[in-house]
């Protein structure tokens, strides 16, 4: 894959989400390649659960996946093309080159002016104050998770809550679009 800014972020890791190895070790993350966002996403064990009488492990998207590169350097490759200078302590440059915590870009992946967030901006709450009429999201409703049968490695159910947002670039004809 040749979408992102470095080899690590262009790698395809994990399965398509229909099956993992049997005898799942809850101490190890599960990796899923999500073609709709052109990236591999790690899931971490959240808690024991139960689906129709079958004991399961609930995995959630690794919270680090949505962090800015200065907090999770692996995400440095997902910024704007040719923007980050390699200095992950330069927060001014990071804020200029990356969309924000919890925002997944589709700008290069799908060549589209869209970004993904959790539903109701879950995971990217810093934007909620800029949107009139939106309430803080609940993790019970807005999070993404998978229930895995730990013996077979099969997912039994899941919840994938994402919200597609338009990415609007600053332009002279729109007064209320800020950097």
Automatic annotation (TrEMBL):
One of its GO terms (cellular component) is membrane. It is found in: Membrane. InterPro entries: CD36_fam (IPR002159). Keywords: Glycoprotein, Membrane, Transmembrane, Transmembrane helix. GO terms for molecular function: scavenger receptor activity. Belongs to the CD36 family. This is Uncharacterized protein. It comes from Intoshia linei. The lineage of its organism: Eukaryota, Metazoa, Spiralia, Lophotrochozoa, Mesozoa.
